[in-house]
């Protein structure tokens, strides 16, 4: 990040010592230990895949991400937290030359088939959202979650996965906006069972109104602790439909 703003990983690591390993988080079924295990698993895999590409060797392939997390969940928590710092550092250093060469390039065998620049954004977003999962609302988390590039990444690359759970239980069409002052509206639509997300010019239609940090949380199936941060002009049935759709992972 430019200037003095903390990176998402630095903010996560700063908050982590205050969170006990068995502390419950906003991720259903996961304690802080499982959240850290998931992040270490992803960072070390991306580092291994990037190193393989740079060395011209076959990249490791993952078919079951949940299964990949299991050995990390079994680790001693102090070791796991040290692995988070070293794994993220290795991942960042190995991705840097790939991003510098062409951030729009899709590198075979790396990540989820995203352009390499989007992979970097994805990991930034993982650390940002999971920091909130550990600590809830605070000023530091709000500043990070409000970064427009994180919302943009979700809209461009993750709409299918972010809407999958909600679509599985919803069949009706919907068109609703989530609005923040001086920013594009987030348009959430379902047509014939297919869900889409888009950032569009604001209009005067009824909408859910909130702040940028809370909007990213809503998109990821979370809600800020203070309900006054989110207000709605939508009819109750439409608001209920939107909330059911944005159930996250």
UniProtKB/TrEMBL annotation:
InterPro entries: DinB/YfiT-like, MDMPI_metal-binding. Residues 7-134 form the Mycothiol-dependent maleylpyruvate isomerase metal-binding domain. Keywords: Isomerase. The keyword Nucleus does not apply. GO terms for molecular function: isomerase activity. The keyword Isomerase applies. It comes from the Bacteria. This is Maleylpyruvate isomerase N-terminal domain-containing protein.
